[in-house]
Structure formats: structure tokens, C-alpha cells
Amino acid sequence: MKTFKIKLIAFLAIIAFVSISCNNDDNDSQQTAQTILSIAKANPDLSSLVAALEKADLAATLNSSGSYTVFAPNNKAFSAFLSANGYANLDAVPVAALKEILLNHVLNTKVKSSDITTGYVKTMAKGNASASNTISMYLEKNTGVDINGGKANGGATVTTADIEASNGVIHLVDGVIGLPTIVNHAVANKNFTTLVTALSYNSASGFVGILSGTASSPFTVFAPTNTAFTSFLTETGFSGLSAIPANVLETTLKYHVVAGANVQSTSLTNGQVVNTFASQSFTIGLTGGAKITDTNNRVSNIIATDVQCSNGIIHVIDKVLLPKF
């Protein structure tokens, strides 16, 4: 019996030692987990990103504790970005501009690919339109993930997802993601294809150029969905956008735009009269949900708010607003 007790004690001691060793191994593994910056530095194809982060004084941020998502452009993407914007090299990019571009690739939360759904998220970048509301990013989940409509629209596509880091996650992308304008965001979201077509129809008024630029910006755009346009055509009896007289379409589009203001949803008040780019106004109502009453006493619901762009902000509405002609 005494021999059995000795063997039992020895066995328990071995189990305890193995358990402690495993725990120590786990702790060591956690302690040696690499940060986002460390992983980027170890990848030769991300050397331009690392150089950009260091130049913009953001390297320390992505080397610190936290929970970030980084959409990381490769070297080829950075070369294309420099060429497209007329920069001879990375040193030629102004630091302030570079910092905002890089922050436009970072979310202040960890989002794995399995957590992504089609819709808007907030980056850490700020454009010129707002001092407080950060730039929105549109993620479209298909077989993969497109960002802001993909490379053709100034965005990118995820090429490798879910590279785990101690302070978040990295998704490799094939393009440098530019700060999206109102037009970029409208093009990226398939719910606005009719609006984009309408903006392009009356090319003489230059709407696409106006809402892509900074002159008269910031803009606040109340953007009707495709369904809203379909209902509008039925209501007005036009067979399609091409059947709408140019002056009617132009005035209607201008009636959805406020020039010179980035009006966030928190600034809307009940009974507020909003003056538009069409030199006509509409009224905000907040009772029973945010809505707009146009000059023809028609009511449109505001169904999504605060899509922040570099040159303004978008609020989504479910009915086309109709001005006086």
C-alpha cells in the first residue's frame, strides 16, 4: 500500500508539471503573438505599406494593444496609387494626405471575414467635410468582399482574408482605397444605380463632376433608392429616365442636394426647413421616425443616415422628392 501511495504521488506530480508546462507554453504563445505592424514588416510584399505607416507616424498605433481591422494594400497597389496621382514616390505624398489615406484602411474594431455583411462601416479617416464624423466604407459581401465598389471605383477587393494578429486582423487587398466622394459611394451601392444613371443623364449640368469634387462642398445628399425611382416614374407617368425633360430632371436632382453643409442626422430637428440646391425647400419631420415633406406635400422616409464621404454626407430616402416646376 505504501508503494502504491508513492507511485500515486509521483503520477500526480508529473500531471501537475505537464499542466504547468502547457499553461506556460500558452502564456508564451500569447506573449509572442505578433502585432499588425510586425506581421506587415515580415511580409516583403507589404514593405510600401510599412514605409507609409512610418512616414505618417501610424506605425506605433498598429504596434500597440487594441482591436483593429486593417485592409492592407500590397506593393503593386501602392505603385499604382502613386502613378495615378502623379507622385514620383512615397516621399512626394504630403504627410497629412497620406495619413488620412492610410486611416481609411483601418477600422477601430476587429472584423473577421465571417463577420462582414453587405453595408457600411466606419473607418478611422476624416475627409474635409466633417471634423467629427469619420469616413464610411461600403463592404459588399459576395463570394469575396469588395470595398467601395472595387478598384474601378477607387476601392479594392480582399485577396487574402483573416490574418490574425495580437491586436486585430489583417485583410490583404489589391488596391489603395481612396477617400470616397459622394459619387464613389453612390456607385458602390447597387441600391443607387438609378440615381447614378440619373446624375449622368443630364451631363450638361455636370452633376457627377460637382458631387465628385470639392467646389461648393460639403454637400448633403438625400439619396432615393432604385425602388423610390421606380415608384416616381409610375407616379409621374414617365416611361423612363430618358423620357423626363432635362430641366425637370435637373431641378428634381438639385432638390435632393444641400450645398455648403455636411448635415448629420443628429443636427436634424422637427419642423426644420431645409433649403436646397434647387432654390426650393422641404421640411424635416421627426415624429414617428425621420421623414421629409416636400413642396408638393408628399412624404418620404429617411431610411438610413450618415454615410460620410470625403466631400459630404448621404442620407437614404424611400421616395423621390418632387419640387415645383
Sum this structure up briefly:
The chain is of the alpha+beta class. Helix content is 33%, strand content 23%.
What key phrases describe this protein's structure?
elongated; seven-stranded mixed β-sheet; 14 strands; Fasciclin domain-containing protein; 10 helices; disordered N terminus; FAS1_dom_sf; alpha+beta; 325 residues
User: What is the beta-strand fraction?
Assistant: 15-25%
Give the helix level as a range of percent.
25-40%
What's the tally of helices?
Answer: 10
Order of strands across the widest beta sheet? Answer: 2-1-7-6-5-4-3
Report, as a whole number of angstroms, the end-to-end distance.
Answer: 105 Å
Judging from the principal axes of the Cα atoms, what is the shape?
A: elongated
Signal peptide: 1-23
Pfam family, one: Fasciclin
Domain FAS1: 33-177, 179-321
Keywords: Signal
Please give the structural blueprint.
Elements: H1 2-32, H2 36-42, H3 47-55, E1 68-73, H4 75-84, H5 95-103, E2 106-107, E3 119-122, E4 136-141, E5 145-147, E6 156-165, E7 168-173, H6 182-188, H7 193-201, H8 207-212, E8 219-224, H9 226-236, H10 246-254, E9 257-259, E10 273-275, E11 281-285, E12 291-293, E13 299-309, E14 312-317
Parallel strand pairs: 1-7, 8-14
Antiparallel strand pairs: 1-2, 3-4, 4-5, 5-6, 6-7, 8-9, 10-11, 11-12, 12-13, 13-14
